[in-house]
Amino acid sequence: MDVFSALADPVRRSILETLNAKPLTAGELADHFPISRPAVSRHLKLLRQAGLVSVVASGRTRVYRVEPAPIAEVKHWLAQYRDTWSSRFDALETEVFRTRRERERERERNDQARADRDVASGKSIDARRTHFQEEDSA
Q1: Burial level of 19, CB count in 10 A (0-12/13-18/19+)?
Q2: How confident is the model over 119-136, as pLDDT tens digits?
Q3: Average pLDDT estimate for 14-31
Q4: Which residues of 86-102 are buried (b: 16+ CB within 10 A; e: fewer)?
Q5: SS3 letters for 33-85?
Q6: Domain boundary assignment for the chain
Q7: Measured between alpha carbons, how far is 43 from 45 in angstroms, rounded to an integer?
Q8: Is the pLDDT of residue 118 over 90?
Q9: Please, how many CA atoms are within 13 Å of residue 80, restricted to the half-sphere of its CB?
Q10: Rounded alpha-carbon distances, angstroms, from residue 102 to 106, 107, 110, 113, 133
């Protein structure tokens, strides 16, 4: 199995994250997940085949640890896309801010138009207050 296929599975990524904190046996690792021990063992086997995990036998136990080299390869592969993604995300951010600004301005124009209509039709509080003041003085 290649590295990208191994990393495609969320359980295997979680296993790598757990092992990155400290090396563990398969049993210790299985205690961290809501899946069976045989399922964890199958995931470990695929991670070993991809070179992402190594195992060291220590007496009757086998301790699994993360191998950084394949992760570095993935990082290197992703780096070629970082500049492209960065410029596209910058453009997206600019567009999001522009759209927000336009919506806020439109909302302000609508609020002002509504307030103007309310005043003209006598619906606003200020218009009513003025109306009542005129009645009181008459």
Answers
A1: buried
A2: 777 765 555 555 555 556
A3: 95
A4: eeeeeeeeeeeeeeeee
A5: CCCCHHHHHHHHHHHHHCCCEEEEEECCEEEEEECHHHHHHHHHHHHHHHHHH
A6: 3-66, 71-133
A7: 5
A8: no
A9: 4
A10: 6, 9, 12, 16, 39
% of the chain residues with pLDDT over 90? 59
Pull the structure tokens for residue 40.
């964890």
Place of tokens 């495609």: 8
Amino acid letter for position 35:
I
- For CA atoms 44, 47, 53, 59, give the dihedral sign: positive
Cα first-last separation, the chain: 92
Tokens of 133: 């003041």
Q: What is the pLDDT of residue 81?
A: 86
**CATH class, 3-66 region:** mainly alpha
| pLDDT number for residue 48 | 96
- In this prediction the pTM is 0.60
User: Which amino acid would we find at residue 100?
Assistant: R
